[in-house]
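Entry 12.
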Amino acid sequence: MLLSEQAEEGFDSLSMLYEEPLIQKQLITDFTKFDWEKAKTQFVKSCEPKMRMLTFGITRALARFANDPTLFYLQALSLRPTDKPLWYEFGCATARLQNFKTSEMAFKQCLSPYSDAGIKLAIVYFYSKDYHS
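Predicted 3D structure (tokens):
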């Protein structure tokens, strides 16, 4: 569901960049073995290499275009695992897809007194009928 021909061209250009070997080298191939906590403790934004920054920008932009943005968000978050606004965005996107377990995980990553992630998490529990979590 692309908005315009210009948006479609942008998506195609980003997709071509995404396939570049230098970008692919930055990506996680198996998220079942990815240690999110370790990635969070090791991430230092001020020391982020340029290629990782570029890969992050591409994957985040592709997530916003894609019909199912889950993999693109996961890739972006693996590069910046402490980005709470991105976790929130990911939670909203997966909730729209009714992928409630994934949206629950995402909203739990960005809970704070200044965010409505807790409300979104309660709504996810309601729709997934998991009222007692």
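Annotation: The first helix runs from residue 5 to 18. The helical segments are 5-18, 21-24, 36-42, 50-65, 70-79, 84-96, 100-109, 117-127.
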